[in-house]
Design brief:
By secondary structure, the protein is α/β, with parallel strands linked by helices. The protein has a domain of 88 residues: ANL, C-terminal domain (GMP Synthetase, Chain A, domain 3, 2-Layer Sandwich), CATH 3.30.300. The protein is 36% helix and 24% strand. The protein has 13 helices and 19 strands. Strands 4-3-5-6-7-8-9-13-12-11-10 form an eleven-stranded mixed beta sheet, with helices on both faces.
Amino acid sequence: MRNICTHLVSGFLFPLHERLKQHTSVNVRKSMEQTQWLSPGEIVQLQTEKLRQLLIYANIHVPYYRDLFVRLNFQPEKLDTLADLQQLPFLDKPTIRMYLEELKSDQACHLARFNTGGSSGEPLVFFIGKERVSHDIAAKWRATRWWGMDIGDPEIVIWGSPIELGAQDALRTLRDRLFRSKLLPAFEMSNQKIEDFLNTIRKFRPKMLFGYPSALSHIAKYADKTGIIMSDLDIEVAFVTSERLYDDQRKQISDTFGCRVANGYGGRDAGFIAHECPAGRMHITAEDIVVEIIDPHGRSLPHGESGEIVVTHLASRDFPFIRYRTGDIGILDDEVCACGRGLPLIKEIQGRNTDFIVARDGTVMHGLALIYILRDMPQIKTFKIIQESMDFTRVLLITEDGLSQVDTDRIIVSFQARLGRDVIIAIEQVSEIPTEKSGKFRYVVSKVTAG
């Protein structure tokens, strides 16, 4: 029965849905399932040609890039290698805010307006056309099929984006029922809500879960704590994205739900950048995305070195994202995956630049240096670390039965050993730690800019 329903959705209902929305995702996905087996060299050739065509188009139809190319005397038709991209400046959030209208193609129609919450609290508004939407859908669809899943397999989505949650009208509800997908809001995580989620998952019996790793692991922890068995539902895979996936979260989700965990990386602004294959490696969606790694001065770094992830989305003609600074930190890998796909690899995604802590002496370290201190204390249920300044860090804690003075002193001494002996560490025991507006949860937030 499952296969019949899945084939009906993936082979007829979803393609019909996409055709009605004027999306080309079906053909794009089929093409991607061919190009993923190209050699690394052939994929670079494909990227170079697509990049040349994108830049030629932008030169003709996008006012911002037309003016920029004139000022730089940049001739896109002469682009020969991906490295030629480095002749262009980065696209960052302030630039998009300043030139929002000029970044639209004069040929664009039916643009969809999107925004991201932004770690600073200031939202970024941008636009996406049907070409870009189609490619992002196709990339996610292809990655789902890597794991033996398909559109139409029963799915529970635990998400917090207002875009999805604000679209729950009668038509959307009907569509979800037809596609056997159920959306649960990740904003509120009270015990009652989590119990409702667990009951819904048991009744729905999904083949796959999709959501934030923090939300899925939090639900899994509650199930374990309350003795609710969830490993007998035949869930095959949990797809997690939109946050850094920590090793303990992966293990918690896998153990509790009895399934594999597949990590995904991307965003509404940057696109569907990379996804984990069953061999355990993170493949870049290279048919659509060119990834660069840069140092704090904007210089490109070689494979194996950590820096900010910069992306160029090759299917973004209507509102081009060219050398877009994501604010995420990662490392590229020059190996070839054992799965046989020629798609390039991201070795590690370390988090956002605001997930990094700056010590008093200027040393930059990942928030994990502080996270591990708190994770080793079983009496701490949940926490959030906020570096307000070089001299002051707040630690929000939810505990089982409170902290002793010995425990409090231990945290302060351990934090000061990493941040600086004179840094003030304020321990705040609270009853609730709210998520971000998007429903995501961030363990570490630094308001200090790494120099």
